[in-house]
Amino acid sequence: MTDESPWLIAGLGNPGPGYAGNRHNVGHMVAAELASRVGGAFRSHKANAMVVEGRAVPGGPKLIVATPNTFMNVSGTPVASLLRFFKLAPERLIVIHDDLDLPFDTVRLKHGGGHGGQNGLRDIIRAVGTPEFTRVRVGIGRPPGRQAPADYVLSDFSSVERRTLPNVIADAADAVEHITARGLLDAQQRFHTPRE
């Protein structure tokens, strides 16, 4: 596995228009932004995923941007199948997902570790056989009052949040590009620093 190897970028969410605006689907939203940057259209792949391939920057690494066609909780099989198809090791995988434990408008990057109760991550760790891949965690905040987390993640972003959401999605897409071009540590130093 060389530094010229492509990166598999998996944006998690649920399929279908009924879920498209949900907080749980922010991974899909970031994947769509990355697809527009690589200048391609998603195509159906036999791994049960939608895939687009290209380079976000000229001379940069090849990105394989994917959204599983499955529901979030069973994302693992398509992701593992794509790794096998493209002959990539898990260290060339970046998973983009929503995170209840981070405030809205926060992007955090990490490699390895547990799933933190995120069922999409849990299933990917199971299917891939290791937690040793990179995660781009997009904060959605905690549910207000007594709202159940399961209901909260399947609700749409609020009108106030939607005003900021394009910036959050752009930040997460920038973070993915930065990881693939300059490495995780460099990306963490940039994206974990509070904005001035």
Question: How would you describe what is shown here?
Answer:
One of its GO terms (biological process) is rescue of stalled ribosome. It catalyses: an N-acyl-L-alpha-aminoacyl-tRNA + H2O = an N-acyl-L-amino acid + a tRNA + H(+). With 196 residues, this protein is α/β, with parallel strands linked by helices. The protein has a single domain, classed as 3-Layer(aba) Sandwich (Rossmann fold), CATH 3.40.50. The chain has helices at residues 26-38, 76-85, 119-128, 149-153, 159-182, 184-191, and strands at residues 7-11, 43-45, 49-55, 62-68, 93-99, 107-111, 134-139. The protein has a seven-stranded mixed β-sheet with strand order 2-3-4-1-5-7-6, sandwiched between helices. β3 (49-55) and β4 (62-68) form a beta hairpin.
Keyphrases for this structure?
196 residues, alpha/beta, Rossmann fold, 6 helices, 7 strands, 36% helix, tRNA-binding
